[in-house]
Amino acid sequence: MQENSLRNWKIHLFVLVLVCMTEFIGVKTFNIGIGAIALFPMLYALIIGAIISLPSLKILKMKEMNVAANILGISFMLFVAKLGMLMGPSLPKIFEAGLSLGLQEVGHFAGTILLGLPIALLLGMKREAIGATFSIDREPNLAIIAEKYGSDSPEGRGALGVYVCGTLFGALYLSVLASFMAQTGWFHPISLAMGAGVGSGSMMAAMSGALAVIFPESAKDIAVFAGAANLITTILGTYICVFFSLPFTNYLYKKLEPILGRKSKQIK
């Protein structure tokens, strides 16, 4: 099946055209007074891809969409290989960062699992809730789910749904949040820059871009610390997701689903 997927010229042609179009548009930044909002090629590609895949337009058939889903799994493996090449050299930095990054990962864990999972179950989600809440569901997390459960599994659909929402709204939300937090004066610009390293390149760029508008004198330091924190968080977060977050989410799901879950049928 994967061999046939790689030979589907129509899918590859659409991907090539979308990438060229969106990269040509580039990053667009808008000043909104309290800060800045940044729009990225990934967002454009997602929106255009959603439009051309509408059944009413009859541009792509369901069979071709299934082919695209299989290619997605292959793409994740390439991303994981790239991530693996970064892990070794970055391990000393992770150990040097110590407690600060550990506390940051606790925040990710508390927000997504302890808060998100019960809410997802109350809303009627089944196994989709595991994929949706075990992490912030960026590229490395999607790769973990795709490898363990498959990209078309309930867990895979839950993770992909959060990924899409994060791509559409995450950068916008975090740009506004970073601008608001910067205006309060409660935190040093470098602290906010490190907080921008949530494990997502687009979200990190949106937050650091908004901070650079408010603190132009610290723009270079903001970019450096945000990028370093994002890289380390991505690598450290991958280990935590594999060895702790995903197993714990599964365990918590088994305990909470009989209590909080609705008696709705799982989506097939």
From TrEMBL:
Keyword Membrane: yes
Pfam families: DUF3100 (PF11299)
Organism per entry: Peribacillus loiseleuriae
Top-level division of the source organism's lineage: Bacteria
Transmembrane segments: 9-26, 32-55, 67-86, 106-125, 160-180, 192-215, 222-246
Keywords, in A-Z order: Membrane, Transmembrane, Transmembrane helix
UniProt name for this protein: Membrane protein
